[in-house]
Design brief:
25% of the residues lie in helices and 22% in strands. The protein has 3 helices and 5 strands. A hairpin with a 3-residue loop joins strand 1 and strand 2. The longest helix is centred in the middle third of the chain and has 17 residues. The N and C termini lie far apart (32 Å). Bound molecules: adenosine monophosphate and zinc ion. Adenosine monophosphate (AMP) binds next to loops.
Length: 113
Amino acid sequence: MEDCLFCKIISGDVPSTKVYEDEYVYAFLDIAPQAPFHAVFVPKIHIKSPAFIDSENSLYVAKIYEAIATVAKNEKLEKGFRVVANCGEDGGQTVGHLHFHLLARRNLQWPPG
Ligand code: AMP
Ligand code: ZN
């Protein structure tokens, strides 16, 4: 999609530090990390947010969770990690392309602010 930052990252028009890629998924390091390890996983099709996941595109979400497990294993995140998908204004979503944050290597508090 034109004018979508994460579509531009997927196409390579905007540079990123890749941590994982397959047919369905692209993942890269967050530019403003909120934990010592902070990667962002995106589907390789433009889905606006978690509110737009449906039976037509949910395979991409399954593939993202598989990719997260693979990266967690490769990065040796045995102590645990958090996966976060912000949705819409109240959810704190700032980029309108579905994405899942993988946060790790620090003790994360609950509930979030
Ligand atoms: P959210 O606030 O949930 O929409 O997450 C968007 C995330 O994208 C934020 O954590 C930003 O730091 C991150 N971000 C924005 N621009 C870039 C970029 N060019 N490369 C990597 N991460 C980015
Ligand atoms: Zn997009």
